[in-house]
Every structure is written in structure tokens, then in C-alpha cells.
């Protein structure tokens, strides 16, 4: 379901489709004990999504040429701690998990987020969207993207995932203005200062019941 066009050419990715109603812990039990320990007290659903996303990450790392198994632990605010020469991102939602990685010599930071292709609750959108973003949601809906508000949320989450490893600072929904384009691209203009880059570019798609957004700072 994921496509290479979402990512830089140097990136490698992996995804799995899962049963939404029956969590499978096989990938969790196959993790390094240090990885398992990160969610060892969680419910099975959380263990399953964590295990699947980490499994995807390790598969993508192997595709990148990292054959030695190193546990992917967590840093500040849950940020994955990748091998020193790698940047990447993971995502999980109901029935879908994925990861993407790339060499740091080509890509500085990345973000990946996936959500069900469903409209957000009406009361949520006001806390996510800036006033300047509302007209484009109407435009996207008129073009057949019924989950335009969820797409905006997804783009902001992918933006934050690329932002935090560069800055180690929180980025609120109001601190990035997203320009979502009909061609499957978007630009996140960063409104907070200081910032290492003025904007973060991304790509998006809606497919098989999911909306997916990916960002990269090259």
C-alpha cells in the first residue's frame, strides 16, 4: 500500500496490514528484550502495534544494509533512537503499521503518519486547524477528499515527527501552517522561532481506507 513516491529515493520502507479485532503478538515476542521492556506493562493491543511497527523498522533497516540487529529504543517524548547513521519514522493505527528509514547523509529527518480515512469529530478540528487552513479543507472536500480534516491532522503529525529530532522541542498544531496540494504534496510552513528550516516538505495519499502523510528534510 505504501509507495516509494512518498519518500526520498534513498529511503527504504516496510508496512504490514493486521487484523483490527485480534491483536497478534508474534512480532512483539520476536523483539529484543530491551524493546519488549518498553511496553511490557501495556495491554496486548499496544504490544501488538508496537511490535509490528518495530518489526517494520528492522525490515527497512535491513533493506538499507543494516544487518546487525540493534534494539530501537526510545528517547525524549518517545522518539525512536535509530542507528547513528540513520534517520527514520514509524507509525501505527488500527490495522496498519509502517516504518521508513534513510541514510543521514541523504536525509536529515523524516516523519510518517497514517490514520483511518475518516472525518475527524467536529469538535476536534478547531483545535488542529489554523484559520488559513480551513478554506483548503473545503477545496479538498469538493475534490472528493472527504477525510480532508484527517489529512491535515496526519500532515501535522508527520511534520512534528520530522521537526522533533532536529530541535528536541514541542511543535503545537498552531505552530505550523500546512499547504496541502491536490497533486499529493504539501508544505508545512514553520511559524515558531528559532527553526532549523523554514518549511518541511511532504507527500500524501489516501488508499485502502487510510490516509498517509510523509515528510522529509533533505
From TrEMBL:
GO terms for molecular function: holo-[acyl-carrier-protein] synthase activity; magnesium ion binding. Its cofactor is Mg(2+). GO terms for cellular component: enterobactin synthetase complex; plasma membrane. Pfam families: 4PPT_N, ACPS. Keywords: Magnesium, Metal-binding, Transferase. Mg(2+) binds at residues 113-115. It comes from the Bacteria. GO terms for biological process: enterobactin biosynthetic process. CoA binds at residues 46, 54, 91-92, 113, 157, 161, 171. SUPFAM superfamilies: 4'-phosphopantetheinyl transferase. The keyword Magnesium applies. Residues 35-102 form the 4'-phosphopantetheinyl transferase N-terminal domain. InterPro entries: 4-PPantetheinyl_Trfase_dom, 4-PPantetheinyl_Trfase_dom_sf, 4PPT_N, Enbac_synth_compD-like. Residues 110-214 form the 4'-phosphopantetheinyl transferase domain. This is 4'-phosphopantetheinyl transferase. It comes from Corynebacterium marinum DSM 44953.
Amino acid at each position: 500500500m505504501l509507495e516509494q513516491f512518498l519518500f526520498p529515493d534513498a529511503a527504504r520502507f516496510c508496512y504490514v496490514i493486521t487484523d483490527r479485532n485480534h491483536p497478534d503478538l508474534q512480532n512483539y515476542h520476536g523483539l529484543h528484550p530491551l524493546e519488549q521492556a518498553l511496553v511490557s506493562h501495556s495491554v496486548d493491543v499496544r504490544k501488538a502495534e508496537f511490535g509490528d511497527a518495530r518489526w517494520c523498522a528492522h525490515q527497512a533497516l535491513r533493506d538499507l544494509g543494516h544487518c546487525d540487529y540493534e534494539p530501537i529504543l526510545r528517547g525524549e517524548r518517545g522518539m525512536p533512537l535509530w542507528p547513528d547513521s540513520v534517520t527514520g519514522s514509524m507509525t501505527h493505527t488500527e490495522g496498519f503499521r509502517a516504518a521508513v528509514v534513510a541514510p543521514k547523509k541523504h536525509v536529515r529527518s523524516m516523519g510518517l503518519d497514517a490514520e483511518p480515512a475518516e472525518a475527524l469529530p467536529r469538535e476536534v478540528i478547531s483545535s488542529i486547524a489554523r484559520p488559513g487552513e480551513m478554506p483548503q479543507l473545503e477545496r479538498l472536500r469538493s475534490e472528493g477528499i472527504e477525510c480532508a480534516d484527517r489529512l491535515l491532522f496526519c500532515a501535522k503529525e508527520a511534520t512534528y515527527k520530522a521537526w522533533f529530532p532536529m530541535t528536541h522541542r514541542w511543535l503545537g498544531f498552531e505552530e505550523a501552517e500546512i499547504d496541502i496540494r491536490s497533486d499529493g504534496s504539501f508544505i508545512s510552513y514553520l511559524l515558531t522561532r528559532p527553526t532549523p528550516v523554514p518549511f518541511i516538505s511532504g507527500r500524501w495519499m489516501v488508499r485502502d481506507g487510510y490516509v498517509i502523510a510523509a515528510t522529509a528534510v533533505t
